[in-house]
Amino acid sequence: MITMLTGGSKPNGIESEKINNTGNGVCVDCARDEISNDDNTGCQKCNENEIILKSDNKCKTCPKTSIIKRNKCIECGPDMISSPCQTKCVKCVNGYIKRNNSCVACSRGYIEKAGKCVKCGADKVPSMSRLSCYKCPNGQIVRNYKCFACNSDQIEKNGKCVSCGKDAVPSGSRTSCLKCGQG
User: Fold this and answer.
1) What is the mean pLDDT of residues 3-19?
2) Which of 20, 96, 103, 171 is the most buried (most CB within 10 A)?
3) What's the predicted TM-score (pTM) here?
4) b or e along 5-41 (b: 16 or more beta carbons within 10 Å of the residue's beta carbon)?
């Protein structure tokens, strides 16, 4: 027996996937990835970020923090975001953290550690990977979260470039000054 739906009626209170789109009393099935429209005169697809609820003949929007797989909303892990088309979960790149469903860069002087931005110490700078902090090499100081070399006649002392003076030169390690004729 074929049931014809007209004007949104539901025979025996049961939802049907058949619609009357011919106008002559012949009912037609909607495709597997479609639902019937509001007046049961045609079929419609759900939007890209929606899944089909056939039992309710509705489209359901998946949260932005999930992906759509086999007509199900699947939540991404705690340190992941969903891609723009909600087809895969991705991890933020080094130096970025998850905020809502976006990857946000850690501020200058900070690194990413366990999903949080952590500030490097006063005498350290972020590594290129932005996953660790390191101390500048001897003879260099931290300025604007980068290592800068002291002038050739200076050493680094307590985070500042200090001149060795008129009769002294920096040691080979640039950690102390040597009086001329000492080394």
Assistant:
1) 42
2) 20
3) 0.59
4) beeeeeeeeeebbbbbeeeeeebeebeeebbbeeebb
